[in-house]
Amino acid sequence: MIGRLSGRIAYRAADHVILDVGGVGYVVHCSERTLAALGGAGEAAQLWTDLLVREDLLQLFGFPTLLEKEWHRLLTTVQGVGAKASMAILGTLGPDGVGRAIALGDWASIRAAPGVGPKLAQRVANELKDKAPAVMALGGIDAGAAPMVPASVGGEVVEPSAPSTPGGGAGAQSEALSALQNLGYAPADASRAVAEAAGEGAEDTAGMIRAALKRLAPA
């Protein structure tokens, strides 16, 4: 499995780049959001990758961060969400936006992605709401883990695993607090929202995140 590639951009297209790694050119498909953040031909780049394997097809998909790659992997576990739909969702919302939408059950935001209908958007929100916290917690690990431009150029294979999500109590509060901070909320605001959610009966991590996000949402 190819988990990450570091090299130089040999060619840019509308939906992919060819990344030259040690003289080998890898075709890596990316969302418009990811392509916009990459440099031009000849510049160094690094992408986390996921390999799609079919009988008649081998296709690499690239992501600027580990967090976005893990969201892609989780999204494609939902029936009807293939690589194209997942890339459309991530390209529209970004990894943080996907986390918020799923945690809040906001399927209308997911529907905004090109080619994603209301039924599929609802399925994504419903099926992933309890799995999302583990991926959201990766934000802290992900920070700086795979910069878009590396210090050196060379091939590397990395296959990380997501952390487990503890149940209720202090462990769930800590996990929820970490996820909210990874979404950009100030520690004081996140801590207050998690404490209020726990005080009103939320016990598991997913429930705390959903309840806290509702408290943090603008009035």
UniProtKB/TrEMBL annotation:
Residues 1-64 are annotated as: Domain I. InterPro entries: DNA_helicase_Holl-junc_RuvA_I (IPR013849), NA-bd_OB-fold (IPR012340), RuvA (IPR000085), RuvA_2-like (IPR010994), RuvA_C (IPR011114), RuvA_C_sf (IPR036267). GO terms for molecular function: ATP binding; four-way junction DNA binding; four-way junction helicase activity. Keywords: ATP-binding, Cytoplasm, DNA damage, DNA recombination, DNA repair, DNA-binding, Helicase, Hydrolase, Nucleotide-binding. Residues 1-62 form the DNA helicase Holliday junction RuvA type domain. GO terms for biological process: DNA recombination; DNA repair. One of its GO terms (cellular component) is Holliday junction resolvase complex. Its main location: cytoplasm. Residues 170-219 are annotated as: Domain III. Pfam families: HHH_5 (PF14520), RuvA_C (PF07499), RuvA_N (PF01330). Residues 172-216 form the Holliday junction DNA helicase RuvA C-terminal domain. It is found in: Cytoplasm. Belongs to the RuvA family. Homotetramer. Forms an RuvA(8)-RuvB(12)-Holliday junction (HJ) complex. HJ DNA is sandwiched between 2 RuvA tetramers; dsDNA enters through RuvA and exits via RuvB. An RuvB hexamer assembles on each DNA strand where it exits the tetramer. Each RuvB hexamer is contacted by two RuvA subunits (via domain III) on 2 adjacent RuvB subunits; this complex drives branch migration. In the full resolvosome a probable DNA-RuvA(4)-RuvB(12)-RuvC(2) complex forms which resolves the HJ. Has three domains with a flexible linker between the domains II and III and assumes an 'L' shape. Domain III is highly mobile and contacts RuvB. The RuvA-RuvB-RuvC complex processes Holliday junction (HJ) DNA during genetic recombination and DNA repair, while the RuvA-RuvB complex plays an important role in the rescue of blocked DNA replication forks via replication fork reversal (RFR). RuvA specifically binds to HJ cruciform DNA, conferring on it an open structure. The RuvB hexamer acts as an ATP-dependent pump, pulling dsDNA into and through the RuvAB complex. HJ branch migration allows RuvC to scan DNA until it finds its consensus sequence, where it cleaves and resolves the cruciform DNA. This is Holliday junction branch migration complex subunit RuvA. It comes from Hasllibacter halocynthiae. The lineage of its organism: Bacteria, Pseudomonadati, Pseudomonadota, Alphaproteobacteria, Rhodobacterales. The gene is ruvA.
